[in-house]
Design goal:
Layout (H helix, E strand, L loop, with lengths): L14 E7 L6 H18 L5 E7 L3 E7 H7 L11 H25 L16 H14 L2 E7 L5 E6 L1 H20 L2 H4 L3 H12 L1 H11 L5 H14 L4 H12 L3 H13 L8
Antiparallel strand pairs: 1-3, 1-4, 2-3, 4-5
Helix pairs in contact: 1-4, 2-3, 3-4, 4-5, 5-7, 5-9, 8-10, 9-11, 10-11
């Protein structure tokens, strides 16, 4: 079998490399959602061009993505109608670089709980992909890395751990809850009603499941502390007790005790005052 041409080497400027580092399986549905999100964002950013998977390697899942025009030439296939000359390769390479920059920017902003990731409403180019990458890290327990080699040879990498992804998601949800909690109508209802309205936004069951998935890892205490602080800043500390009760119902008493301990050690806050 002939060697893969260098144009689609993972260090090429014509590709975006996404790697999922971990030993456990990841569902086909999760991978499908990730690739669909990447494809939709790329089509939007590259004005109709198509993103394709040129290779997937086993072990840690290494996926090399490139423009369809680049892939067609690389495979020495009969050129598609829109692949007329080397100019298409230049366009494809430029589109991949622009796409990588958009996704990386969205990932970075999401770490601070912003940038439209995990928020409601229509998402801008790159946000849908960033959210799918974060969800892949949360749901699979894998670390997710994107890598792209710039035209000047500089290699850009960004890696997201499952715990970072969980904190980013909860920051965004707490931000939504805080905004909704500040509306004039919201201020007129009782504390119990506020609690019932905010809990769906915080998705406490999903957060409890995430803690269980991360249990035993060295960063679990730091993760719980970050989530406790985030929910406290949003005025949603009652959600912490709901999470603790959910964990206890599943037999995870140590995790529940850790959450209550972190909550009680923090500064006093008015809860849904």
């Amino acid at each position: 079998m002939p060697e893969t041409p260098e144009i689609l080497d993972e260090n090429s400027t014509a590709v975006l490399v996404i790697t999922l580092y971990g030993n456990g399986p990841i569902s086909a549905a999760q991978l499908g959602k990730l690739f669909t999100s990447l494809s939709r964002d790329y089509k939007q950013i590259a004005r109709g061009r198509m993103l394709v998977v040129s290779s997937i390697r086993a072990g840690s899942i290494v996926t090399i993505l490139t423009d369809s025009a680049t892939a067609a030439v690389n495979a020495a296939a009969v050129a598609a109608p829109h692949v007329k000359d080397a100019a298409e390769i230049v366009k494809g390479t430029w589109s991949i670089a622009k796409f990588a920059d958009k996704v990386a920017s969205a990932l970075g902003r999401a770490r601070e709980g912003g940038g439209g990731v995990f928020e409601r409403g229509q998402k801008r180019a790159g946000q849908r992909s960033a959210e799918a990458l974060y969800e892949a890290a949360i749901n699979s327990g894998h670390e997710v890395e994107i890598k792209h080699t710039m035209p000047d040879g500089e290699v850009f990498k960004m890696r997201v751990t499952p715990s970072e992804a969980i904190v980013a998601r909860e920051r965004a949800r707490a931000k939504i809850a805080q905004i909704e909690g500040g509306s004039p109508v919201f201020q007129q209802i009782t504390a119990a009603q506020k609690h019932r309205l905010l809990l769906p936004s915080l998705r406490t069951k999903a957060l409890a499941d995430a803690f269980v998935q991360m249990d035993g890892r060295r960063e679990i205490d730091a993760l719980i502390a970050a989530v406790v602080d985030t929910l406290g800043e949003a005025g949603a500390e009652q959600a912490l007790e709901t999470i603790a009760l959910t964990l206890e119902s599943g037999g995870h008493y140590a995790l529940a005790a850790t959450i209550r301990g972190q909550r009680d050690d923090g500064p006093d806050r008015d809860v849904f005052a």
